[in-house]
Predict the structure.
Amino acid sequence: MLIEPFVFLALSAALSFTCADIFARKGLQYANHFVGATITLVGELLFFVPLVFLLSPSFPEMGAHYLWVMIGGLCNPGLFLIFFLIGIHRIGVARAAPIKGMSPIFAALFALIFLGEDPAWYHLVGVLFVVGGIVLLVSGKTEGRWSRWDARWPLIAAIISGFGAMSWKKGLVAFPSALPAAMVGASAALVLVGAYTCYALREEEAGDVKQAFWPYLLGGVAAGMGIFLFTSSLQLSEVFRVVPLVQISPLFTVLFSVIFLRKAEFITWRVPAGATLTVSGVILVVLRV
């Protein structure tokens, strides 16, 4: 059986976001995370703008669809980045990442309510399997004291990401190509995150921006590719099928760490269990009967 195009695009998006995460982790060694988010979004536009000039995709006439893709960009990556990074700062990435991984559930819910998508029961089970697999893959022992109330930040990020996927889908229907839509959304996100970064730097140190610049910028180019692939996939299929596929990027991160970085400590019961759940969920999500 041939792989459907939206599956290939969504999995490629997950791989691109994995590369972006790896560059971001390198940049985080040197500079403030909000500064990094801003540089990352600049990198995304450096990916989109030359392609727009090179390929000259057609832009639709002005209408509500532009507002929807701007809302999509403001939600994800814009507000999502802000709330998720606050969550990492408050409770640590080991706790924030599993909570953020719940976004496919909210994406499916918003698509059901606002877009009238009609997933079968096994599609919804697949979404739950993917989320469960992500939680297992990125969870583990953590240290330090933290307030449970601070868990609201990554939870809000997950909800916003789900709403953003619905907004992207609603606006993309009017765009012949996902490229101009992705550029519009990323531009809106850059304005928002850049403004918040200026506000945050009043209380936090920027860090060594010179050392962090290139990792963050290259991460932005990879993330730009990911957004383009993600939005292209959304043009071809339903939100509840695309978002879980894109969210399996932690699986790629763990696999890359084991294969290329020889991180043997990743090999615990969580890795095979999480991988099995995630892959099983992917199969259910893409299944057509």
Remarks:
- Residues 5-119+147-239 form one domain.
- The chain has one domain: 5-119+147-239.
- The chain has a mean pLDDT of 88.
